[in-house]
Amino acid sequence: MLKKIRDISGKAGENIREYPMVLLMSFLGSVSLICYAHGDFNSNPNFFVFIKFALVSCLGISLMFALKMLSQRIGKQIVLEIAGVLFLVFFYFLLPQEKKYFTERFAFLIVPAFIVSHLLVSFIAFFGKEKELNFWQYNKNLFINIFLTGVFTGVLTGGVELAILAVDQLFSFNFSEQYYLDTFYFLSIFGSSFIFLMFNEKGLLDLEKHGTYPVILKFFTQYILIPLLLIYAVILYLYSAKILINWELPRGWVSYLILAYAVVGILALLLVHPLKHESTASWVRIFSKVFYFTLIPLLVLLFTAIFTRILEYGYTEPRYFVLLLAIWLTLVVFYFIFISKATIKFVPVSLFTIGLFALAFPYLNTFSVAKRSQKTELQNILNQNNLIKNGKIDFSVKVSDTIADEISNKIGFLLKREEKEFVLNYMNPKHQKIITNNIDKGTLYGIEGMVRSAFSNIEKTKSFFGENFELVAENRVRSVKDYDFFARVDNYPQTGGLTVGPDVFTIQSQQKEKILIITLNNNVSWDASKEIQALMAKYSNRTGRLSVPDISLEHDLGNYHLKIMFDNLVRENFGNRTIYFSDAYIFIRSK
User: Among 463, 478, 501, where does a domain finish?
Assistant: First the structure.
């Protein structure tokens, strides 16, 4: 037992000595997430710094591991690690300083950056004349170690969480739920990194060491991946036949199905690469030759689907990435068809290059292209629909709901990408003030609804479910002065009673067409539903979100004066145009 403990301690010590920067990054990432989880962002928005630090630290795990693999090949470990730290500092300052400005555009920076950093791990140590089989063994071992790390980390995390629960329940410690979350963050990030590094032992030399081909990989590829590919291929070719017969444009989501088919197929080929040279694995050679040819007709379908969306709506970050993936896939297909001495290193290296181009190449990166495209699209829509008057958008012009939606979506898109000045140039002073206030408050997601509701003459053309309309109360702080009692009104169908001295108020809410009814002593009632419907009728042609100072109704009932204050009112703009609320409060005083 002591020998086992000494062996584990020895390996742990080797891990720390061999991969100090990787473990430091994982430790900082887990601690940052724990601090973030303990933060109170309402009182201290500066706690957002922890989520930024966590993201950068987690990116640093794969980056530092990649640089460690390179240093084991060429040396210069200190120089490489300093360069890695400088890059992470630069990446940290690319992220917004406040949580309210952390819009979805940063997901298109963070997610590709993580993918690119993992691709770097796969090939950075193999730029010389190393044998291709070494490259395959290295990545195969990484693949297996990642899988094993997932299993070990899952078991370890689950076991520790259950142990905490057992101690809590048996000894009545009443642990806070935060303990479980903290444990999960620490073990899933730092713990998984530590376990992964223990599997890798001394690194590059062990990872690229030749070994027998794993039977499990052969089974997985032959009986799971390839049958999946056949199913994908049949579906895609049947859909292609349908397009030719009906002579219709392909649907946008078919792009993702084709990319999935291609990625799964390339993964299958990479997994069985060493078997190509074995006489007993003729199915691998056949599959390798046939697969890339099956992709050629699908590439035509893929580019048709992509450009159908781009020509109609312009570039956005997702469409840009899909187009680049299609270009990369085309390069891979023709590379392996026409290059006789093709190397599998081309797959990760070319994808890494494409990803780096998309994120960092001046003028042609995804963010620059998307912003330019959406600016042009917005200008074209405004000019084609004669919506520009004296250089500003004339919201009184009659437009279809489709055009109103497109304009509001594109304005919201540009504002989330810091194109404030461009958008404000098209707005009158009133809307400039509203937009500026929303940006200052960080409520960027409400701007699209505001722009949509600014159009006073919208023609209904959509036959499908339209957007809802939400009336929102800006003031959520309610004074109880001049009232004796107040209570919350639940937003789900209910029948409840409030006892006030000798009297009982019965509240019925959200029951079919009855939005809110208050009855005193089963005798006299106030049906607030009609007043709520009359209030929402003032905005019968609006969709999206509109903020007002407050939403309240008052009524005398028996010997009491009642006031209802709503956080919001929502109208579904389809079917029976149902009206409902999320939260409401009733204030009661004696007359």
Answer: 463
In this structure, of 65-69, 184-188, 382-386, the range with the lowest mean pLDDT score is 382-386
Q: Is the pLDDT of residue 8 over 80?
A: no
**Are both 269 and 382 inside the same structural domain?**
no
What is the spatial distance between Cα 68 and Cα 17, in angstroms, rounded to a whole number?
A: 12
- Nearest Cα to Cα of residue 138 among 203, 56, 196, 62: 203
Instruction: Read off the pLDDT of residues 281-327 as tens digits, 9 standing for 90 and up.
Output: 567 777 877 899 999 999 998 998 898 889 888 999 999 999 999 99
Structure confidence at residue 434 (pLDDT): 84
**Taking the CA of residue 206 as centre, how many other CA atoms within 13 Å lie in the half-sphere pointing to its CB?**
9
**558 by DSSP, 3-state: which?**
coil
What b/e sequence results for 502-523 when a residue is b if at least 16 CB atoms lie within 10 Å of its CB, and e otherwise? ebebebbbbeeeebbbbbbeee
Measured distance CA(180)–CA(175) in Å, rounded: 9
8 Å CB contact between 448 and 537 = no
Question: Which residues, 6+ apart, have CB-to-CB distance to 280 below 8 Å?
Answer: none
- Name the strand (E) or helix (H) holding 566: strand 560-566
SS (H, E, C) 252-288: CCHHHHHHHHHHHHHHHHHHCHHHHHCCCCHHHHHHH
Q: Domain tally for the chain?
A: 4
pLDDT on residue 26: 96
CA dihedral (71, 74, 77, 78) positive or negative: negative
Q: From CA 159, how far away is CA 165, in angstroms rounded?
A: 10
Are residues 458 and 476 part of one domain? no
Using only C-alpha atoms, the chain has a radius of gyration, in whole angstroms, of: 31
Mark whether 346 and 386 lie in a shared domain: no
| pLDDT tens-digit series, residues 424-455 | 999 988 888 888 888 887 777 677 878 888 88
**CA distances in angstroms from 417 to 79, 103, 134, 410, 545, listed in the order given:** 35, 8, 44, 11, 21
Residue that is written with structure tokens 């473990």 in the block:
23
pTM of this prediction? 0.75
Angle at which helix 401-415 crosses helix 447-454, to 10 degrees, equals: 140
- Domain end point (choices 174, 207, 240): 207
Domain match, 474 and 453 both: no
- Residue-range definition of the domain harbouring residue 423: 368-463
